[in-house]
Specification:
six-stranded mixed beta sheet, 2 domains, 17% strand, 406 residues, alpha/beta, four-stranded antiparallel beta sheet, Alpha-Beta Plaits
């Protein structure tokens, strides 16, 4: 199958690949530095500084501290009334204890490299490139605030590529709702005056029992997971406070909200049964499900074909979690494809972090940069592609994915 060239002839394609190659050594050094110096969410100060330095040297206009986030930024090059406007997302945070086990040391630099290559081959009047520095993805805090602050206003498309053990152009994310459940009881001496107490921990335990019974009736694809975040202070004191943290996930919004409602009903029932009072707080970091844009996915897929790279065949809903990029997908056509950095890898593990610092990880970074750059260039050169992407967004298309389908 021949790739759709989308208005990008062989000469321009060759120049784009050469531009990626030209800056690759500097970007790979940045990726290695990040792997060796992981910075946690909202603490990505040096990483953000290095991102900004790289972009400033290439003529980008920099806005720092976007959305009140000290490590966030928006870097812009090009513009004008006729320009195609593309946002490249640059994540930066690492995980506690295990460092860059989600691959942001590869995905962020891949976006920077794609942006740099585009600057070398397309005019500022034709393409506006906006690199958005996105902190705190692991907390789910960065992108919703950036969206609210207008960081993606006026964009025709937004994109980034993420490390994985698979190559796929189309990848979905589960919506997620996060709750903190606090049970309030009455303390008493557990041996001398147990009848005087109201055991808040009984409320939490009752909730987990009800949740276990609920799970057999959950819709396919819905997931619920919870932990006890406060179980009391000492065995001889009936706990007056106990708490649980619960996350609900699903692909379909209706399913997500319906399951969340039933989970909260379980929580309230446990409070009634235990004679305690329930307080519910929806925590920061809740996100909707990914809103796909299939024409934009097809443009990225065409770049893989042109690079001679075959997708690995996994379904878009296989082995997925949640991400705050779904907030971006609600305001601009967005894709979040995968590039491979090894085999049989699992996100958020030490082996994944090791793969992110390996030669195969670096090859994945370069693949992502080439495909992202080609996608943005195709949008700039092909009005037909832009129209398909725009029309899919206007129609509000929602993809219902049959389980296990590619």
């Amino acid at each position: 199958m021949q790739a759709d060239r989308g208005g990008v002839d062989d000469a321009l394609w060759g120049r784009l690949l050469a531009a990626v190659e030209r800056d690759s050594a500097e970007i790979l050094e940045l990726a290695r530095w990040m792997a060796a110096h992981p910075e946690r969410s909202l603490e990505e100060r040096e990483t953000s500084e290095r991102y900004v330095h790289f972009l400033s040297e290439r003529g980008f206009r920099i806005e720092r501290g976007t959305a009140g986030l000290p490590t966030a930024f928006v870097a812009t090059r090009g513009g004008g009334s006729e320009a195609t406007r593309v946002a490249l997302l640059a994540e930066m945070d690492a995980l506690p204890e295990i460092g860059h086990a989600c691959g942001h040391n590869l995905s962020g630099p891949a976006s920077l490299l794609a942006a740099s290559a585009l600057c070398a081959v397309v005019s500022e009047q034709e393409l506006e490139i906006r690199v958005v520095g996105c902190p705190a993805e692991e907390l789910g805090l960065g992108k919703p605030r950036l969206v609210a602050a207008g960081a993606f206003e006026g964009m025709h498309a937004a994109m980034m590529a993420h490390a994985s053990d698979m190559r796929r152009a189309h990848r979905l994310f589960l919506g997620i709702r996060k709750f903190e459940l606090v049970y309030r009881g009455r303390a008493a001496h557990a041996a001398a005056y147990p009848e005087e107490g109201r055991n808040a921990l009984d409320g939490v335990i009752g909730f987990f029992v009800a949740l276990g019974l609920l799970r057999q009736q959950l819709a396919p694809g819905a997931r619920v997971h919870a932990i006890v975040s406060d179980g009391g202070q000492a065995p001889n004191i009936i706990p007056e406070r106990a708490a649980a943290r619960v996350w609900v996930r699903a692909l379909a919004e209706g399913v997500l909200d319906a399951v969340a409602e039933r989970v909260l009903a379980c929580a309230q029932g446990a409070a009634t049964a235990s004679g305690t009072r329930l307080e519910v707080e929806e925590a920061q970091g809740s996100s909707p499900a990914m809103r796909p844009n299939l024409p934009l996915t097809e443009v990225y897929r065409a770049q893989l074909l042109r690079l001679g790279l075959a997708e690995s065949g996994e379904a878009p809903d296989a082995n997925i979690g949640s991400s705050d990029i779904t907030h971006v997908s609600r305001v601009v056509p967005t894709i979040h494809p995968n590039f491979p950095i090894g085999r049989n890898l699992k996100l958020h593990t030490r082996p994944f972090a090791e793969a992110c610092a390996s030669p195969e990880g670096e090859r994945g970074l370069l693949e992502g940069a080439r495909a992202l750059a080609g996608t943005a260039l195709t949008l700039a050169r092909s009005q037909e592609s832009r129209e398909r992407v725009k029309n899919a967004s206007i129609s509000g298309q929602v993809l219902e994915v049959p389980r296990g389908s590619p």
